Sequence to fold (356 residues):
Amino acid sequence: MTSRLNIKHIMLAILMIGVAAIAGWLLGSGKLDSSAQQTTSQLAVTPPVEIVNGVTVVTMDTATQIQNGIHADALTSSESRTEITAYGTVLDLQPLIGLRTRYAAGLADADTARAAQAASQQEYQRSLALYQDKQNISLKSFQAAQAIYRSDQAKTQMTTVKLQNIQAEMRQQFGATITHWALDSRSPKFARLLKRQEVLLRITVPLDDGNAAPVRIKIDANDKRRLPAQLVSPSPQSDPLIQGRAFIYRTATPLASGTRIAAYLPTATQTTHGIVIPADAIVWYGGQPWAYVQINAKQFGRYPVAEQSPMLGGFFVTRGFKAEQRVVVNGAQLLLSEELKPPPGGSGCKDPECDD
Fold:
């Protein structure tokens, strides 16, 4: 029994020596290192977010892109007419509505005065005829009828003057065109103002601009889009805070009264060449707009949309992007969310102050 155990121990020792010898040979020949390096290279993968030449690049495989609906479109070159930036205010229509109410009351007073004048005139003419026909009425009765008629004449004239003054006050504040709208009870344009389907804007054009006010302009809305506005008339009043020539425009945007806005007035001939970045491609980060450009089949770089001009449907830029570049128009916000995910084991803070 003892001899058999010794034989097993001897064979086990020989096996271990053989394994050690083979491992030593592999290590000496470098084959073990290359095998380990190959395993390490197989485990290495491209990081999902990295900085390449100062640009943040997000990597996403094709299957994940399809699953999340990531889609990019090619940019095209465009032209934009050179613009003048002007500023203005949304007009408060309450004074105009108040004047319109006073005018309606004045019309009622004028109708009443004319009716009273017509009645007293008939009485005066009847009294005059009787008095001239052998004094069939007394002089006192005739003079009383005459006084009432002349008083009613004066009241009628006074109501006419009041109506004229209200019209003049309207024109002094809002101009002849809007006054005509307000005094026409069947005006569809004024009805849209009353329902706030449209609002009026007072836009001040710089004094050094000798061009006529354009019929159509663009204004900045609260959601960073440009919306159209149409010229109504010159403004009889100007903004005391802005020097220039003032004009009244109307726009179908329910902006609050008193809101200060920026307006963009096109010039007559000058144009600028550039690129339009679609609104669907814009993501906001750090207080400014960005767009993701597709670098290759799996990588997307986030680029700033600098020196942009908001326009209907997007931003017009003159640098930073080229025609035929593909920008993400569906799923850009998802790429930003992927970019901002904290790394495994990280603090979860993307702010540079976290490094302090």
User: Anything to note?
Assistant: Residues 122 and 333 are 82 Å apart (CA to CA).
